[in-house]
Specification:
Low-confidence stretches: 1-20
Organism: Roseobacter insulae
Keywords: Signal
Largest sheet: 5 strands, antiparallel
InterPro entries: MltB-like, MltB_2, Peptidoglycan-bd-like, SLT_2
Order of helices and strands: HHHHHHHHEHHEHHEEHEEEHHHHH
GO molecular function, one term: peptidoglycan lytic transglycosylase activity
Shape: globular
Mean pLDDT: 92
Protein name: Lytic murein transglycosylase
Length: 389
């Protein structure tokens, strides 16, 4: 699911200057949406018909606030999501839709493993696409003041789909965050990147795997996917290494990583491509080089753990071996990570929201404190580091 979380002040600054931007009574907020829709040129009768069944859904807000799964470390998270059955079904679907994937690779330059991994994680290969009413979900999240800048435009995109006959506010369902179909795309993405892959005259992301996969490929290309290039590659790193060189902000050509002793576990390093060394659970755990295409994953989802797991699974589906898990130091619980984030804030670090999730800002702050304390600066927080702080 493609989610972002900017500061509320920034959110409000880019919204229309109207009292119903977010918050307040739900009915007044919907009235504001209807007025804005009419101002955008949508007919009054269509607007009334679209918004008539819309209701606030408290289940959506509960789901939005309950994403504790992203507090799990990479090894735990990836082992939960990547089962032998998912690998087997992914390989089976690769064969079943071989001709479709050939078209996608030729037209959009996106490897089949990438889309298979998203298809698997988002809806279990189309098996469960979500049962939340999409119109209710989008309007509920637009009304909520946490991320209105993301969801308010999607309400009007859903209205456009309704006018085209491709959306029913009463019956269209999907994920709690408003995504629809087998690879879970938001309404604006469907409008901009939806593809009628099977040639039946409709873009049917819920019922046509061909349409869903082609549309996913088109969207990834639009987000900047570089054809013919890898996304991640598992590597081994010498025991004696400057671990402060790890992290997504330190980018070097692969030749420089090779000169520092970084070696691929499968296949050659991609000659002279820029790459970053990522250590999801510190210098004693698995290690990967992240190439430019890896950054495109963050346009699909903002969770580092989800992104790395999806990227790794894509390589598995294309023949890469099971990663070397290593023997990483014990990490922190969600409660301990919140404590860590508060301590880092007290030292002047910007860690974003205190949420118990080891995100990019928290990792950067951890790495800075590890350097200060003379510890291996691998951005992996441990109980020992928490005690030192």
């Amino acid at each position: 699911m493609r989610l972002t979380a900017p500061l509320l002040a920034l959110c409000l600054s880019v919204l229309p200057a109207m009292s119903s931007a977010c918050g307040g009574s739900f009915s007044s907020f919907v009235d504001g949406l209807k007025a804005e829709a009419r101002a955008k040129g949508h007919g009054a009768a269509v607007v009334d018909q679209f918004f008539a069944p819309v209701r606030q859904d408290p289940r959506v807000l509960k789901a939005d606030r309950s994403q504790g799964v992203f507090q799990r470390p990479f090894l735990d998270f990836s082992q939960r999501l990547i089962s032998a059955d998912r690998v087997k079904r992914g390989q089976s679907n690769a064969r079943k839709y071989d001709a479709v994937f050939n078209r996608i690779e030729q037209q959009y330059g996106v490897d089949r493993g990438v889309l298979l991994a998203f298809w698997a994680f988002e809806t279990d290969y189309g098996g469960f696409q979500g049962d939340f009413n999409t119109a209710n979900a989008l309007v509920t999240l637009a009304h909520d003041c946490r991320r209105p800048e993301l969801f308010r435009p999607q309400v009007f995109a859903a209205l456009e789909l309704f006018e085209q006959g491709d959306f029913d506010p009463r019956t269209t369902t999907g994920a709690w965050a408003g995504e629809i179909g087998m690879v879970q795309m938001l309404p604006r993405d469907i409008i901009e990147n939806g593809v009628d892959g099977d040639g039946d005259g409709k873009v049917s992301l819920k019922t046509s795997a061909t349409d869903a996969l082609m549309s996913g490929g088109a969207m990834l290309q639009s987000l900047g996917w570089r054809a013919g290039e890898p996304w991640i590659q598992e590597v081994s790193v010498p025991q004696r290494f400057d671990w402060s060189q790890s992290g997504l902000t330190v980018v070097k050509p692969t030749s420089e990583w090779a000169a520092l002793g970084v070696k691929p576990r499968n296949g050659p390093l991609q000659n002279q491509l820029p790459a970053a060394l990522i250590l999801p659970q510190g210098h004693k755990g698995p290690a990967f080089l992240a190439y430019p295409n890896f950054n495109v994953y963050f346009e699909w989802n903002q969770s580092f753990t989800y992104v790395l797991t999806a990227a790794y699974f894509a390589t598995r589906l294309q023949g890469a071996p099971v990663y070397n898990a290593g023997n990483p130091d014990a990490g922190l619980s969600g409660a301990q990570t919140k404590e860590l984030q508060r301590k880092l804030q007290a030292r002047g670090h910007d860690v974003g929201k205190v949420d118990g999730i080891l995100g990019a800002k928290t990792r950067a702050a951890v790495q800075t404190e590890q350097k200060r304390l003379g510890l291996p600066a691998d951005a992996w927080p441990t109980p020992a580091l928490l005690a030192r702080l």
